[in-house]
Queue: 4 jobs
Job 1
Amino acid sequence: MNFDYKQLIKPEMNIGEKEKKIRLISGGTLFLVSVITASIFLLLLALALIATGYNGWCPAYSALGRNSTDSNT
């Protein structure tokens, strides 16, 4: 488990298109649920999913060396 801090400056995409859509939809759904239930934890989780779905880069994937851009997952 090695994390390259240079990727924070210029991150490479490590999330595929299908996973981006899933993250954006689930993040939007969690955002609505967090507003209805007034849950700060769900709000933060929703914002993280939306941000990673929008950017196409996940710091956790980068630390674990995972890349879903080549596969259909």
Job 2
Amino acid sequence: MLELLTVLAFFGYIYYLRNYADLRTKAEKEEAALAEGILMFQNQKLDEAYRYFDKRIQDKPKSSIAYLYRGLCKEALGNSQDALQDIQMAVSLDDTFFKIQLELGRLLFENDNFSLALTALNKAVTLGENRHPEAFRWRGQTYLKLHQDEEAWEDFATEKQIAAEQAKNGGLPKVEVKAPFLDRRLIASMTLVLFTSAVVVSAIKNAESVHLPYLVAVFSAISIGFAEPRKGWLLAIMQSLLVLSAYLLFTKAPESSAQKELESFSLYGSIILTFAASFLGGFLKRAFSMK
């Protein structure tokens, strides 16, 4: 049974790293995967870019980014109506990506559909988190067309403010600057892991069933993931190693075979649950952050 738990832990860890360490959204991953075609579009190789994204859509018909850039290619080639249809399809596949909402709002504006443009641009402003002055510029122009002058000038002022701040910081918004990996918050979280690891080991040694150690491991790991959604994988590894090392090195082996089996299940089960629950904690933190 221990061999089975070891195999499950190994494959669980691989899945964990594959799906948890990379916290990009689906659209961001697609954008990275389609970088070759995006570069063609940016370099004005429009026919090549169009064929590239058209082929990608045939291969993966649910790729929102492929629809977005095929639409932009169509617009640049003079087919704005088909371009709008492609970008509307992109929105139907993923309405949470900033650039998709921005381009939809811009195209609707240029087609004189100002009410729908405003709806899309409102979403773009929300998704952009005050980092993209162009969203405020397009929404301001839309407000003007809808005779909402006061809101328009507020957006134009915000656009200038964001642009000035980005210019001051070398063209990059402050929020894009990467913080050091080992910061005070991570150090504090690692200190907390020392405590939670001791609690898990204590629960393993004193519990009469596997339920208490599992609950302790789950709640401590959820806290890890919630506190550090991007670095929780490191803390989960740290807690697992600490729990395993402390149990093997600093606790007395049980005398009865029944107690030994109970503690083994509690130990290895807690380690597996640590990874799963820290993923859950990171997911919960991202879910709350999106509200």
Job 3
Amino acid sequence: MPWEHPTVVVEHRLQVPLAHPGLGYRVPGSLHDAAPTISIFAREYVRVGNEDKPRLVFFQGGPGFAGARQETDSGWIARVLEDYRLVMLDERGTGLSSAIDAARLAELGTPAEQADYLACFRQDSIVADAEALRRTLQGEEPWAALGQSFGGFCVTTYLSQAPQGLSKAMITAGLPSTRRHPDDVYRLTYAQTEARNAEFFARYPADEETCWAIVEHLADAAAAGSPELLPTGEALSARRFRMLGINLGRSYGLESLHYLLENPFVERRGGKRLSSRFLHAVGAELSYGPNPLYWALHESIYQQRGIVPAWSADRVRGQFPQFRQPAPSADAERAQRAEGYGFRFTGEHIFPWQGEEDPALTPLAQAVDILAHRDDLPNLHDREVLAHNTVPAVAWIYRPDMFVPVEICMETAAEIAGMRTLISDDWHHDALRTHGVTVIDALFAELA
């Protein structure tokens, strides 16, 4: 579908410090530059005739995902463009904003120096970038902000760090805890993931047998020296297969996961194997090649001074017997099945062993492990500033959200003075995509 309304697209680029002054980050010594800079990119969408509308900056979910590359002005974007000029930011480390991958990190020397570099890509630095862009575009005039998921984490930090830059703050599915250890967050996400697993297998009961057959086959094939290989060359393990459960957190994720599991096996001369179609589909779901920062920074977005994740999701997993990861053998899988908990996919959880199994992540693994154990990263929120907030603010909260727990969202909303909440009992984490116009209409009406 083409753009329905004539729209002008303007590209913005600027250089900003890698380590913004005042945030407290270290510059990796291997850069041989006391004040290194990176490039920040944003696309501004302006509907013809709306050139005098105020600006709204959008923070993408993630971490590690670039701003959307729009091919049409449908959905929530069309609604935003009625009232605003939309600034779609590529958050640092993504898209055209000095994107990070294994090759870039390899240029930075030791894993410790690489960890210092990665630490500079959290939400406080993203907010400082946005402020630099705002001042470049419009001086001291504040702009509105909208953040989805991790983008909401960025907007919360914005309210804490630079509220003078905001005229309005809007959040969908993304109020972070300002004080809790990520262990608390992951206990809640595992509980919600359990509920969504139960819903999935109640809707598609035959898929549970399929899943057990797949993990037992993967273990048998590996033990026989003929592992199932993904298109990127590595063996598919049973523990990595379970990570397909991230689909369960999406509005239509039950259906997409069910269709992915259709007819996974084929008969070859050597016996039963997974089909190439299935392996390609699974590989596309599980590879972090396009977005390595999602893994590298996923738990660091909760990390603050004295709060050390140390692979929180992996540790907390052990507190839930139904999510316990069996040893890599078919017998262990059968023993797990015999315990009667049922097959369980994990959700939005990252694990240290992904650095061993995903070739896109292996070069980052040492640096990410160092970062995961740092206890000196700067605080991401000033709770005193939030308690005296004067920026008009509103957040959509979804009770079934599998990724950002409703309990955390409600707790944080109560900590931000004047924060209004809109609550859905039915929508999931991606409601901005699936119910975009309704979501935006309600946000705008609440702050009108």
Job 4
Amino acid sequence: MTEYQNTRRQPARKTEKPMTRRERRRLLRLTVSGVLLVLVVAVKLLMPDVMGQYREKILHLMGENTDFVAAFSAVGRAFSGQGGIRDTLEDAYVAVFGEKEPQEAAAPAQTEAQIFSGVYGPENLPEEVKLEQQVLGFAYGAPLQGTVTSGFGYRIHPISQTDLFHYGVDLDAPEGSAIHAFARGTVAVVGQSSTLGNYVTVDHPGGFSTLYAHCRSVTASAGQTVRQGDLLAEVGQTGSATGPHLHFELHRGREYINPIYYVA
């Protein structure tokens, strides 16, 4: 069916049915969520430390499962004339607040952790591993500027060629590059092992700690107080390594946390 019957006669204009009270309420909730999203983006860009402190409360207000991309795509279709108001409201409402009734055939949406680390179920994820992003509560920064060559999660180990869980991320950098403290804290251990090579660990506030491995040399000393960005070591390839890089881990107590959120 074409948009025009001929070049002279204009098509009959569709008239939208007036919005119901329920639809108006959905639109209001979508608008509030959109305003919150804009505020979160602004705070994230301008005041990252504040964002870290209040992230959990903001996520609670907005809903952690909210698909804002789908929501604003629906609104965009309405403004471009590709969809009616009623259809747009339905799409946006579902994107922001979920399906009105459970649908058995619907596949679960991927979480941010699954996108970064692969899809793991409880049955094959190590007990001490946390994929979800954690609120640190202090300022932090990447220990070096390098490309992530191996992420957090299961992988084929480059030396043993077996499927093993990788408890940190590998950052590629030239040999001798400076490795900086991820955040303020106290140097806990300076050591050497056949697997990690030369390594150093730093304790941070809130029970968090970081590990820096395969170093060519470690310049920090155990017991030393460091600030974010202070020099700790140099990139190397000691221990089980196939080339110069930094193996970086983030812990909270006995738990391993995915570092990709904080270094990428």
